[in-house]
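Incident review: delayed structure delivery

Summary: a single-chain prediction request sat in the queue longer than the usual turnaround. Root cause was a stuck worker, restarted by the on-call engineer. No data loss occurred. The affected request and its eventual output are reproduced below so the record is complete for anyone auditing the incident later.

Affected input:
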Amino acid sequence: MQLASMPFNEIRLDRMSRSFGALNALRDISLSIKKGEFIALLGPSGCGKSTALNCIAGLLSTTGGGIYIDDKRIDQFKPEDRGFGMVFQNYALFPHMSVRKNIGFGLKMRSRPKAEIDTKVDEALALVRLQGQAEKLPGQLSGGQQQRVAIARAIVIEPPLVLMDEPLSNLDAKLRLEMRAEIRRIHNQMKATTIYVTHDQDEALSLADRIVVLRNGAIRQVGTPHELYERPAHLDVAEFMGFRNRFSGKVVSRQGERATVSAGSFSVSGTVAEDLQPGASAVLAVRPDDVTLSDGAPGGVPVTVEAIEYRGREYVGIARTPDGVEIIFHADHAAAPGSTVSLSIDPARALVFAA
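Output delivered after worker restart:
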């Protein structure tokens, strides 16, 4: 039995686990994915995101828990019987086959009539905007075009689920931006359910309906892009979502959701992300673009500039406090290396976590 044409409302991971000997690569992953939803699995290398994708695809067997489409358990099915579409990082195209034959390969393996294959391949070519490239070999295409072929091959079988494993990591920065927009356009047009693996927070933010952050094989937080960007629930999630500046110290005061942390020679304020009271050890985290030159305004953090880079519309600098804490900041004008300046941190944009 194949699941390719099976209607469904939900794909559910129920305590899905995968061990390699003593190593628990995945630990009790539970997640419900609605039909048509775009989910990004986000995290650093080794967090388990590709392992999770391979278990869902059937390329790896699970060692615990189950995978369900609605109420039907599918983790015992072979990969080809699941009927999922998969897009790999390295394209995995057949180099000796034309674009048309690469895209139609899955349909041919399903013994579909030639007329149906031709029609569906033409539709897939139009969807990925490669109508004029059908008779070329993959080696005659650019990296972005090859990835479009890989996407077309995955979606032409009309799968219940499309799985993408870091599909843009081999492309240059300009192509990545273009392909991000294309992937989202194709997803919206197909209304397919998609699980997308990435270590790039910008990709996850721009593409996903919900983001699942993994760490050490476990889910740390699930939420919309806005929720994870604005209010990460844990310090490690915050760091992965761009909160690169960290100040360790103690909470000296708290008023409502605002707490002030004494960090040695200076104090900084932010929004409480966890329940912390005065006297508690804490870490204040803030993104570099929320740290700016204060130009003598009171309450700034005194630092010595170590390096400054011109980035076109702004400058990005690295500075150090008298206690040796490194801070990355943004500015609209240059600050000379070696100079002493004051940095301003927006309390509404900083978060305070338990140490």
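Verification: The mean pLDDT is 89.
Action items: add queue-age alerting; document worker restart procedure.
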